[in-house]
Specification:
Layout (H helix, E strand, L loop, with lengths): L2 E5 L4 H12 L3 E6 L15 E4 L5 H7 L5 E4 L6 H6 L1 H22 L3 E7 L22 H20 L2 E7 L1 E3 L14 H10 L5 E3 L11 E6 H17 L3 E6 L4 E3 H12 L6 E3 L8 E2 L4 H7 L7 H14 L2
Parallel strand pairs: 1-2, 1-4, 2-3, 4-5, 5-6, 6-10, 7-9, 8-12, 9-13
Antiparallel strand pairs: 9-11
Helix pairs in contact: 1-7, 2-4, 4-5, 8-10
Length: 319
């Protein structure tokens, strides 16, 4: 049985990935700094839990003992904060990735799956973004993800480390109530937070060149995303691999569509208000997922309703 170190395994996506690994028969060790404070995501569910920072190389080397593969999901991820405090993001996200690779080198671990982001892409007018499209990130956060991809590819080639980077689009939903999304930046938890505070959720801009005037994004259920990690891991284990894949649903939903689905799930009109458009928001961002479907045999299955229903179920359980 292969043992996988899930770095960032107490996070929203990381906990789902770790849980899916267990279901698939892997042995799992969690490594997380618990800066999110959510020990409940992993306590009692995983045997091996290490509290540590990705900037602590010595701790990483120690934790890497007996590990066969790494799934690296640990990162600072607030785009706005990355603009005002880029040093924090470069140090943590790029420096942390460097430390992980150094620890892997010491312990001769030869497989890594990396959590990247659609934030690496340059804005374009294509119906769907492909992995070969231009990468000129708009934020330091996106730049740190791209630099980390490049770092992993360079070290992977030199040391024959099999590696896949997964470029996430927008992640929604939950498989277990304790694993729900508590992010202050993601659309669905942001809506729930506004409603809990007695406020109306906001739609930023209504004059985009889209059918209903609001931005269109690609949303994927977190459980589908977790299964994409398993597919990537299995490919890396089977042969030396160096690859990048988009992970999304392959279709777009507008902000207004999302609000309508949330209203349907809650059984009431959430009555969003219109707010000014935000600088830097592109009208449409949808993933082309043909490459991962063709090469790894992975496709998402969850509907938008299932994504929102499961998000609300997790939110309700933790009220």
């Amino acid at each position: 049985m292969n043992k996988v170190l899930v770095i960032g395994g107490a996070g929203y996506i990381g906990s789902h990935v770790a849980y899916e690994l267990l279901k698939q028969g892997y042995s799992v060790r969690i490594y997380d700094d618990f800066s999110n404070g959510l020990h409940r995501r992993v306590d009692g569910k995983f045997r091996e839990i290490v509290e540590g920072d990705i900037l602590d190389r010595e701790k990483l080397v120690e934790t890497m003992h007996g590990i066969d593969a790494v799934i690296h999901l640990a990162a600072k991820k607030a785009v706005g904060e990355s603009v005002t405090n880029p040093l924090k993001y470069y140090e943590n996200n790029v420096g942390g990735t460097l430390n992980i690779l150094a620890a892997m080198s010491v312990k001769k671990v030869k497989t890594i799956v990396f959590s990247s982001s659609a934030a690496v892409y340059s804005p374009n007018d294509k119906d769907a973004v492909e992995e070969s499209d231009a990468t000129v990130p708009l934020s330091p956060y996106g730049a740190t993800k791209l630099l980390s991809e490049q770092l992993i590819a360079s070290v992977g080639e030199a040391e024959k480390i099999s590696h896949i980077s997964l470029r996430y689009f927008n992640v929604v939903g939950s498989a277990i109530s304790e694993f729900g999304d508590n992010s202050k930046d993601n659309l669905v938890p942001k809506v729930f937070s506004a409603l809990k505070s007695g406020n109306r959720p906001e739609i930023y801009g209504e004059s985009y060149p889209t059918p209903d005037g609001s931005c269109i994004r690609d949303y994927i259920h977190v459980q589908d995303l977790a299964k994409a990690h398993i597919a990537a891991l299995k490919r890396c284990e089977s042969d030396f691999t160096s690859a990048i894949y988009n992970v999304g649903s392959g279709r777009g939903y507008s902000v207004k569509e999302m609000m309508n689905q949330i209203s349907e799930t809650l059984g009431k009109d959430i009555n969003p208000i219109l707010a000014p458009a935000r600088a830097g928001d592109s009208p449409k961002l949808i993933a082309s997922i043909e490459k991962i479907a063709r090469e790894l045999g992975w496709r998402p299955v969850a509907t938008l309703k299932e994504m929102i229903d499961s998000s609300w179920a997790a939110e309700s359980a933790n009220l």
